[in-house]
Amino acid sequence: MTAPFRLYGAELSPYSVKVRAYLGYKGVDFEWLPRTNARQEEFQRYAKLPLIPVLVDADDNALQDSTPIIEKLETDFAENSIVPEEASLAFLSALIEDYADEWVNKAMFHYRWSYPEDQESAAKRITDMIFDGAEKPEGIEEQVRIRMIGRLYHVGSSPETAPLIEGSFARLLGLLNTLLAKRPFLFGGRPSLADFGLAGQLAQLNSDPTPGAILRAQAPNVVRWLERMEKPKAEGPFASFAEVSADFAELLRDEIAGAYLIWMDANARAVANDASGVSVDIGGTNFVQKPQRYAAKAFNELKRKRGLVDDAALAALLAEAGIEAILSAAQQDDGDAADDEVDDEGDGDGEE
């Protein structure tokens, strides 16, 4: 792809701000274009699906979906790479980024549309962006609020699953707060794909009243990292896998193997069987939601990436956490899972 770029997105879309922060880090020329009503016709010329972000290059080539956008740009703009040279560390980064996109997003969407103060704040900010200074139709904020509350089932949020989702969020904050006391970014002196993925979701949580108060009270190191991730700069090299791997053991065991991958495996099986719903026990909670074909495709891509890395230390770390067993036992579904359905980025960013 060729600069300069146009990035169509929204401040309340974790995937849009993820790509925006990445473009800023790479130092490429781009224009940030909020998806307003006035810009809708222009946006539709490039979007295959009504989802953000959309990146358009100087030759009018367009890409959607934050992870493929970043991976494509990494091949075209190699300087200041966000991919560690060690394949084992690069896989950990990809794993944590997908955990952010597919699991932490549930906390983001849950908090934003479950609590009245958060609902009102998000509905106002969304409609402020859409109408961009023009007069809003009467009742439009309430319409947005009701519509998005109705989509909570798409991410598995319900009164029954709320303690699981909120407990997962609190546990992640504690783990990250400890980790980020040691270095400026997750894997050393420069941001990785995992940093951009987690920061996209956690910046949204920090912007909403309820989870933002939790985050600022319990995780000051995470708050400072989020500030760095708004305009990240390399401060040094990546650490080695040997130096940092032990720091991720608890996150890998309790969050990634203990919640995210259990759900991803169950979701992939539901999609493969054309089931109407996903129901799986996670930590003693029956987690129920609509199957997500996009997540099933992402799970297959994660398994593909794991198969490319032959490293004994990585295998030992993943086996101890319980991850290796899930990835090796997971059934394959090599169909194109995302072409006929709105993907998770549409469920979670509130902008489709």
UniProtKB/TrEMBL annotation:
Region described as Disordered: spans on this chain: 329-352
Record-linked PROSITE patterns: GST_CTER, GST_NTER
Domain GST N-terminal: 3-81
Pfam families given in the database record: GST_C_2, GST_N_3
Acidic residues bias locations: 333-352
CDD domains: GST_C_family, GST_N_family
Domain GST C-terminal: 102-248
CC annotations in GO: cytoplasm
Descriptive protein name: Glutathione S-transferase
